[in-house]
Amino acid sequence: MLSQAAGRSLRDDRDEIPEVDAAGFRMSMRHLAGAVSVITVGVGADRTGFTATSVSSLSAEPPAIMVAVNRTSSSWPALQRHRAFCVNVLADDQQFVAERFAGRDGAKGAERYDGAAWRPLATGALALVDALTTIDCELEEAIERHSHAILIGRVKAVTTRTGAQPLLYWHGAYRHISNHTG
Ligand SMILES: Cc1cc2nc3c(=O)[nH]c(=O)nc-3n(C[C@H](O)[C@H](O)[C@H](O)COP(=O)(O)O)c2cc1C
């Protein structure tokens, strides 16, 4: 059901709409279904990464994407050091990789890469073998805003896996497409 405020003219009632608090905002964002990616950054022992649903296409000419990263995460200083990252869009059989890179089992840094197969990319970041698609990026710009930084990635290379389905996240849980047509 629409809220009373949504039913009225936004133009007329703009001043009456209360400021949204963090809890209300989070509640709203739970409705935003998203693809699940793992962002990899760094090389050798100096590598880490994080699970993200904030990946979005920015432009096709030139190929560019954006991702929001929390500046308290271990990936933020690594991104600033390495100036490159890879977006690994997960397939629906890769939920365990999402859990690792979200830090759910306590794994940190290079440990998060254990248990899955990776290959090195031109930028130095690692790509998850059998990801739905991988997007190797140079960090063009990082815009620090509020708690996060918006990473603008200039795409250097992509790979794709055919015949697999995406891993999705919605209402606080991983989801799978159940009525796909192939
Ligand atoms: C489904 C899902 C989506 C997430 N999306 C993001 C995101 O877009 N940006 C972000 O900074 N953290 C996101 N996180 C949280 C990070 O994955 C998590 O805080 C991070 O891996 C912890 O980092 P650290 O232990 O390296 O500091 C998400 C977590 C989950 C489970």
Give an overview in words.
By secondary structure, the chain is of the alpha+beta class. The protein has a single domain (35-169), classed as Electron Transport, Fmn-binding Protein, Chain A (Pnp Oxidase, Chain A, Roll), CATH 2.30.110. The chain is 17% helix and 41% strand. It is built from 5 helices and 12 strands. The protein has helices spanning 4-7, 10-13, 22-29, 75-82, 95-101, and strands at residues 34-35, 37-43, 46-52, 56-60, 63-70, 84-89, 118-120, 126-128, 133-145, 148-160, 167-170, 173-176. The strands form 3 sheets. The protein has a 7-stranded antiparallel beta sheet, sandwiched between helices. Strands 1-11-12 form a 3-stranded antiparallel beta sheet, with no helix packed on it. A hairpin with a 2-residue loop joins strand 2 (37-43) and strand 3. The radius of gyration is 18 Å and the shape is globular. The two termini are 34 Å apart. Residues 1-8 have low confidence and may be disordered. Residues 36, 48, 50-54, 68-70, 73-75, 101-103, 169 line the site of flavin mononucleotide (FMN).
Order of helices and strands: HHHEEEEEHEHEEEEEE
The biggest sheet amounts to: 7 strands, antiparallel
Uncertain parts: 1-8
Give the overall pLDDT as a whole number: 92
Content-based structural category: alpha+beta
Describe the strand arrangement of the main beta sheet, using strand numbers. 3-2-6-9-10-5-4
**Which of globular, elongated, flat, extended, rod-shaped describes the shape?**
globular
Bound small molecules, deduplicated: flavin mononucleotide
**CATH third-tier fold name:** Pnp Oxidase, Chain A
Distance between the termini: 34 Å
Q: Supply the CATH architecture.
A: Roll
What would you give as the CATH superfamily?
A: Electron Transport, Fmn-binding Protein, Chain A
The helix tally amounts to 5
Name of the top-level CATH class = Mainly Beta
Beta percentage is 35-45%
- Into how many domains do the coordinates divide? 1
Number of strands: 12
Query: What is the share of helical residues?
Result: 10-25%
